[in-house]
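Quick illustration, no need to memorize.
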Amino acid sequence: MTRRAHIAMFSIAAHGHVNPSLEVIRELVARGHRVTYAIPPVFAEKVAVTGAEVKPWTSTLPSPDDDPRAWGSTLLDNVEPFLDDAIQALPQLIAAYEGDEPDLVLHDIASYPGRVLAHRWGVPAVSLSPAMVAWEGYEKEVAEPMWEEPRKTERGRAYYARFRAWLEENGITLHPDAFGGRPDRSIVLIPKALQPNADRVDERVYSFVGACQGDRAAEGDWRRPAGAERVVLVSLGSAFTKQPAFYRECVRAFGDLPGWHLVLSIGKHVDPAELGEVPANVEVRSWVPQLAVLRQADLFVTHAGAGGSQEGLATATPMIAVPQAADQFGNAETLRGLGIARCLTTQEATGEALREAALALVDDPEVARRLKEIQAQTLQEGGTRRAADLIEAELRARTAA
């Protein structure tokens, strides 16, 4: 039996990073462990309902409600804020945990301070990855080509020099790329089906547990309207939602399609008035209880974020992937390769193209068969309970050492 332990979780204030961890945290608390969760105050309430003790800290990253353009447009624009935030967060977190050091650290892939603190405290660190992980050959095939040009610039060299200096100040000799992308141990909170080159992932380090979703009852319910023969949900997630022209094309695609009901989640950055007049079968929302809708939907038009992609797989919902940024392009290709999705760029996603893809997907028995097969596979990966079992195994290994 695993003794009760203090487990500390570290994440950033982003829905796609916090949400996947919550059910694992809830399960660890239910098993009697004391769990602290270091997170900026904007997510404190969401974390607290799991039973974890919130350790608040101040972040300099753009807020979840900020315009996504706040992240800039280049690779260095995207990565520099995480390093800046980590450097200023570390002293806050050292102070927050002084005299209250944990037995084990859990950390999101974007929480650099979590891994640094585990090293400082001499305790095991386990990454909770809400997205794909590195495979053997990843550096040569993806990272090195992506960084080839930025590394040659003065700004790129300065970024790496600052990162290395910060790690060395904290007693870590790893190269920044290995520190950020090669954890000692990782629990991957996505189905293995979503992992590119899964056959080349080192499963001694990475354990795929699939979706850890919970019942989501607190998010509210959604009911399929009477008479709706087909339901389609359109959502670009929580960040890259400022796309009024795309939403207008979705209304064109499904707004006058007999028997169809469109649930259009437009986020906080678009005024519904920008969509013009919408037909009665179009339901426009700033936010929806996504999983509740998907459990009743026939089609999902998604940005192919890791969270949305796995919810589509978990509910066996065919998808049209319209990626917006980051890993979404790779996820979209993976979904297409699985035979359960069509991919369109934002520019290609006209009303005609969306309608054509939708009708082809929902009427294809092979798509339905593949979705059911993948859904069954992901259920076997163990989800929340297996994730908690693996974390407890790391605690037992430490006790035995």
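The chain has a mean pLDDT of 91.
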